[in-house]
Amino acid sequence: HAKSDADHIRAIRQSLKKKKIHIGKFIRVACPAGGTSLMGQRIENYFNVLINVLSIPFGSKASPLVSICKEMIAEIVNSKNETNVLPGLESMNPESLFIKVLRSPGEMSSENPYGLFQNRIAVISGNGALSISLGGLSILLSKMLFQAKNDLIVNTNSMYLGLMRQNPVQYFFDEGTEVNHFSYFKNKKTQDAIAAALNAKSELIPSFAEYRRGSADETVRGILGIEYGRIFNDQVSGKKPIIVLIPGIMGSVLEKNKSLIWLHYLRMMMGDLSQLDINEENIEATGLIKTSYKKLTDYLSDSFDVVTFPYDWRKSVAQAGVRLDEVMQRLSKYKQTVHIIAHSMGGLVARDFIFRNPQLWKELNKRPQFRFIMLGTPWMGAYRIPYVLSGKDCMVKLLVKI
Q: How far apart are the C-alpha atoms of 32 and 112, rounded to whole Å?
């Protein structure tokens, strides 16, 4: 009967053992070692929109080429999981058996307790940053669809993965508007990094860092280096001092009829941002943006009961102030100090509460070690807000173009 893939792999391994090939240095540049999200369910949407964006400068002249590219994409999508047709693409699917095998531990033995792969590896990784340009539009699109750092083609965190090795992976991370999957060999920083890896005389490569799962730069922030996710807490134990955490403008999650609108990037791309029209009903603030406030909340929770106060930032500060007054009255019934931490516009919401209920404010001030902490409150206003509302803000312009 015909040999299976496993049979071929065993034969290759036996042949390699006999040849005793020694690899001195292994430098991986933007390798999808853990697969890429493009080979998942997003591939068709991503490439269709990307082609449309890149064809904008050429207008109708690009139509024939765009049609051909879209037909090619359709064929790729239909065949991407057929290993006999496009084995290269299938091997980059994060859910493929090939990737799952790569991410499993290697074979162990008394001579080799760490698995088969003892050679050192140097990784060149990257993440494209936004700019106000056509390339910037492509980066923005990739961030929305990948939901993580990437170089237009490969997730940054995937570049650090692969087979388990005896020695830790060393990596050089590059980030900037000039970084994309096709620029590593022409950008000066990554050229120098490759040269440093080749010329290194010691085990540690100058300008490189050692990778520990969850330690590299791709974990710092999510999309665009901007926000996503939701946190909410209104539970109080009564055994610890209380902190009311008030976010800044756009820092509250907004839902319509229990369906997330802000921040949901794909829905924003599809035009759902219009559902946040000031006259729309059934809009509810249900939490704080996770990437902005979770670390602070977790840190403070060891010593305090942290109550998050989301509010509808589209509406007047006075309306949020009314709700905050209600929350503060409820929390003041606990025999604990109730502190306030207010970020940006949240400070104005807190001020409205102070003017609205001066008696309660005075009572809270008398409690032990009471604090009202303001982080960047725009007491004299903020110039960027009129730009956002008038559509002149750079991020709004990018969203409109897509």
A: 26
48, 77, 265 from 227: Cα distances, Å: 25, 30, 10
For residue 169, give the DSSP letter.
Answer: P
d(CA 150, CA 179): 10
Nearest to 302 by CA among 237, 252, 370: 237
**Residue 121 phi, psi dihedral angles, 5° rounding:** -130, 140
Side-chain-facing half-sphere of 25: CA atoms under 13 Å: 17
Burial of 86 (0-12, 13-18, 19+ CB in 10 A): middle
Residue 332: exposure state from Cβ atoms within 10 A (0-12, 13-18, ≥19): middle
Q: How many CB atoms lie within 10 A of CB 91?
A: 16
Residue type, 267: R
- Strand-pairing partners, residue 209, are 171
d(CA 350, CA 355): 9
Residues 6 or more apart whose Cβ sits within 8 Å of residue 43: 73, 76, 77, 80
pLDDT digits (tens, 9 = 90+) for 62-81: 567 666 766 766 666 666 55
Write down the pTM of the prediction: 0.51
CA-based nearest residue to 126, from 78, 178, 79, 164:
178
Cα distance between residue 141 and residue 402, in whole Å: 8
User: How far apart are alpha carbons 53 and 47 in whole angstroms?
Assistant: 10
In which residue are the tokens 């319509």 written? 256
Q: What pairs with residue 173 in β-bridges? A: 125
Cα separation, 155 vs 147, in Å, equals 9
- Cβ-in-10-Å burial (0-12, 13-18, 19+) of 226 comes to middle
The token duo for 39 is: 């080979």
- Is residue 220 predicted with pLDDT exceeding 50? no
The pLDDT tens digits of the residues spanning 5-20 come to 667 777 887 888 888 7
